[in-house]
Amino acid sequence: MGLKLACACTIASFAVPFLLTIRAAAQGGDDALLPTSGFHSLSLLRPDQPEIHYSILIPRGDSPSKPVPLVLALHFAVPEGNAAGAGRDLIQILVAPALVELGAIIVAPDSVRGDWSSPENETAVNALLDMVESRYAIDQKKVVVTGYSMGGAGAWHFGEKFPTRFSAVVPVAGRPPASSSGWHLPVLAIHSREDQVVPFNPTEARITELQKSGVNAKLIALTGITHFETSRFTDALRQAIPWLREVWK
Length: 249
Prior knowledge:
Blueprint lengths: L7 H6 L10 E4 L10 E9 L2 E10 L9 E7 L11 H14 L5 E5 L9 H17 L2 E11 L1 H12 L6 E5 L14 E6 L7 H13 L4 E6 L11 H5 L1 H8 L2
Parallel strand pairs: 1-2, 4-5, 4-6, 6-7, 7-8, 8-9
Antiparallel strand pairs: 2-3, 3-5
């Protein structure tokens, strides 16, 4: 599933004014180490548990007096399970180019040994969200989970299992849950009909079921894009901005 093949050229050419720097730091309980703007690769230390490596993009001018949306971005699968830097890659390749105009803080963890639905990753992601929400001015009504491929399935998973944590779910090229029973969060799914790894039809079926049950559910169906062309999903993901603004009204 979605390897880190999504164009080194895209990373090299992508430039956003407030992507100021990438730096590494060990982040514990000292707020003095907390970055205030730009693009950073950091670690969250946890007692007796693996540290969480993550990347975070903070809009320039972020202020404690002005709460902003929060986007949790879950990366694709990686070769041999080595997730180092995969969250950073997802932000650079897809999520920031698409969602930068949302003015959100975007946080992308590196998975802890595998699939996002594992108990270990559930604990890690929730711990990371707790930290970000406690240290930054986050609008709690505007927390979104998105992801690509394995991360798209992860977005579905977190939206299903932790619905009170999020206001909306935006899975991209991700396998949906087997059932729509009990689902109530707004969801915008993005999927290509030519996806040769994660079939299109289950996503289409799940969105149709949700619509029939009265859920705010929408599918952006793409053509001519295969699974490993991650950066080509940017324009579709950009359509999430007006959709989210409507959800948040």
